[in-house]
């Protein structure tokens, strides 16, 4: 296992769309939503730990969920739980976590991922993530993992990519906000749109350079 690999799990959201199951006191990432025997954050941690050392997985969350994180992930130390008073904007939170990781390991490659995803084919996910880590080790790149759309979903944002590029790793043209149904249909017909799952991969050097630049 590569000690330069890190993860930042975003676990501060309330999951209001799943109310009343998901509440501000007990949001959906801490629920076993599908009766799988593990909560969503436990599944996410387990999935990432196939590739990333457990001690290199950080949980970025709200202060009120600190005890829930430690209860559901007993292998996690308090130092791995990064607390923010209010998770209103993800960019400063990601910068904070990236600076902490970069200070610990200047050669770090990291994935930033939501803690509430359900991923059916975990082997395919791990293979794709490894591919991204390999790319970010040699290139100054900011990467994202898209999800192949199966229907015109209006609940996701979309990633438009350059379809003239035949390489398996595509260049992002633009990120599109959640569309209406007709626009979502046109995205699928175009063939070069993916659902945006909010999963990002980069080196600590690349993301900190991007923050300085933009």
Count of the domains: 1
What's the CATH architecture?
Alpha-Beta Complex
Poorly predicted segments = none
| Radius of gyration (Å) | 17 Å
Look at the helices and sheets and give the structural class: alpha/beta
Query: Which range does the strand content fall in?
Result: 15-25%
> Helix and strand succession?
EHEHEHEHEEEHEH
What is the residue-mean pLDDT, rounded to a whole number? 88
Helix content: 25-40%
How many DSSP helices? Answer: 6
Number of strands: 8
Distance between the termini: 33 Å
What would CATH call the homologous superfamily? Answer: Spore Coat Polysaccharide Biosynthesis Protein SpsA, Chain A
> What is the global morphology?
globular
CATH class: Alpha Beta
- What do we call the CATH topology? Spore Coat Polysaccharide Biosynthesis Protein SpsA, Chain A
Largest sheet: 8 strands, mixed
Can you walk through the features of this model?
This protein has 214 residues and is of the alpha/beta class. 32% of the residues lie in helices and 22% in strands. It has a single domain, classed as Spore Coat Polysaccharide Biosynthesis Protein SpsA, Chain A. Strands 1, 2, 3, 4, 5, 6, 7 and 8 form an eight-stranded mixed sheet that branches. The model has no long low-confidence stretch (mean pLDDT 88).
């Amino acid at each position: 296992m590569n000690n330069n690999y890190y993860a930042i799990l975003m676990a501060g959201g309330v999951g209001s769309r799943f109310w009343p199951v998901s509440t501000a006191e007990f949001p959906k990432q801490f629920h076993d939503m599908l009766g799988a025997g593990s909560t969503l954050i436990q599944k996410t941690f387990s999935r990432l730990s196939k590739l990333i050392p457990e001690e290199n997985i950080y949980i970025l969350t709200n202060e009120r969920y600190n005890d829930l994180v430690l209860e559901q992930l007993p292998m996690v130390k308090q130092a791995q739980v990064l607390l923010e008073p209010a998770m209103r904007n993800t960019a400063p939170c990601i910068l904070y976590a990236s600076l902490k990781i970069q200070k610990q390991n200047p050669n770090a490659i990291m994935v930033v991922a939501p803690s509430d995803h359900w991923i059916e084919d975990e082997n395919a996910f791990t293979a794709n993530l490894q591919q991204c880590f390999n790319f970010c080790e040699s290139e100054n790149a900011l990467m994202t993992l898209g999800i192949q759309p199966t229907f015109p979903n209006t609940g996701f944002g979309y990633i438009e990519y350059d379809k003239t590029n035949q390489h398996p790793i595509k260049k992002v043209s633009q990120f599109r906000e959640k569309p209406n149904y007709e626009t979502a249909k046109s995205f699928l017909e175009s063939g070069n749109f993916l659902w945006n799952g909010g999963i990002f991969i980069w080196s600590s050097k690349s993301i900190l350079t991007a923050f300085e630049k933009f």
